[in-house]
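Appendix B. Raw example, untouched.
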Amino acid sequence: MSLKVKYISYGKYETGGYKHELFFAHQLTQFLTTENEKYELIIERPNRFFENPIAYLKLFLLGLKANENYNIVVARVAVFSVLRNLFTNNKVYIVLHNFDEHDGKSIWLKWYYSLLFFLLKNLSIKNVSIVTVAAFWVNYFKNKINNNIPVHLFPNFFDNTFYEKTRVSTLLSKEKSSKQIHLGQWSFKNHPDVFEVAKQLTAKGYYCYFSTNFKDFAKKTNDYEVIYFEHFEDYLSQMAISEFTLALTAINEGWNRVAHESILVGTPVIAYAKAGLLDLVNESKSYAAKNITDIIQAIENKNVQVNPSLLAHYDIKNAANYLKNIQI
C-alpha cells in the first residue's frame, strides 16, 4: 500500500511562510517513514496568485485535493480540505502562521476566514489540527476556536552551523559597517515608520537598504535601496556586516524569519515587537522599539546586543522533538 503526505499551497515566490510549510512537510514525511512503512511527499502548489472572487473560488476548491493519508494545507484551502475529510481517516494539518483582522483582506477573504474559524470551532472533527510557528499564536488560535481541535507548535527551524560560518567569516575578514542599516525585507508588512527612519538616518550619513529575493522589486531611492540578492549567501554576508537589522512590522506577524537570520549572523535586531515577533524579541533579548525616535536613539547609542546562542533550540536537529507531539 502506498502511503502519502500531500502539501497544498500556492504562490509565485519562496516566502518565509512557504519555507516553513515545506520544511514541515519534509520533516513529517521523514518522521512517519519506518522500516515497514514508507511515506512519499506530494506537492500541489500552483505557481500563481488568486486575486478576484472567481480566482478565490478556484483556490478554495484546491482543498478538495486533500485526499492522502496526511494532508498539510495553507489557510485558504483549509475549508474544503476539512469538509473533504469529515468522514475519512485522513489527517489534515492546517498551517496558520498568523491572523490579523486589520491587514487589508478583501470582503471575500474576510467571509472565508469567518467560515473557517466557525467550522474549526463548532464541528466535531478528530482528524484535523492547526500547526503554527510561535507560542503567541498557539494561545491565540486555541482561544479563537475554543480548544475544539488541537493547536500545535512547529517553529521556524534553521541550520545554525550554516549561519555560524557566515558570522565567523564576518568577524575574521570584515568589519561591521557603523553606517549601514538593514531595514529588513521589502514587504507590504512593513510599517510606514520604516521609511521615515530611513530618511532620517540617510540625512545623518547612514546607508539604508532593504533585502529582497525578487528581482522585480530591486530599486534605489534617495533614502534607501532595495537590493536583490540572487544568492542567499550574499544576502547573509551583507546583513552580517550591517550594524543593525530593523523588523518594523505593521501587522501581527507569525514570526520574522529575517530577524531570526540576522541574529544568527550576529547582527542585532530592533523591532516593533508584537504577536509572534514579540516572542522572538523576548527569547533573543533583542530591542523592542516604541517609535521612530526610540529607533534612532538605539542605533546612535549602539546599545543593542546580540547573542545567537539564545536561539540554539531552533536548530533543525530539534525538529523531530516537536513532531512527536503533532501526530493526530
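End of appendix B.
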